[in-house]
Write a structure and sequence with these properties.
192 residues; 19% strand; alpha/beta; 6 helices; single chain; Rossmann fold; 36% helix
Length: 192
Amino acid sequence: MGRLLLIRHAESEGNRDRVFTATPEVGLTEAGADQARRAAGRIQRDYAPVRIVSSPFRRARQTAAILAEALALPVSVEADLRERCYGSLAGQPYSSARGGGDYDPANYWNWCPPNGGETLVTVAARAGAVLDALRDTAPDDDVVVVSHGAVMLALWRHVTGNWHMGRVVGNTGIMVVEHRDGAYLGLRQLDG
């Protein structure tokens, strides 16, 4: 059996300020770096990963680098693990999403942020393909996958088939996806 350890990046400046991050180059806070170091200890204690795969966004790459140093593992970057595009909401407070006239919490996965944003359905398709490839190329290994809150919510759906049970994990929260013979067996969520 293999395990994919999906971890949300540590606290970024955008998380601290409670805004949708304006640019992919926003980095971690000092508190975030500490979170990543604690997460590395937890992973080292409970799992045996062979590599780390990261979103290309700076906050994820920084988290992956901290994990990689502690775990002595290589890191590769996968473009399709990037955070959901929030269109014109980038740089705006989280609360601005619910202020839009077409946001429906009962159907949030189909909501598209204005001016070039992505639905969670779209994110699930692109990030899910990455997850499937990792599952298929590491059938018996633990692999750490560093991404983002919305990406992990979309991957919850990809693995379980259910939107209603998923929730955004906190910074450095982990979802453990078990798999065998090309099939997902289950998912456990661990808080950061």
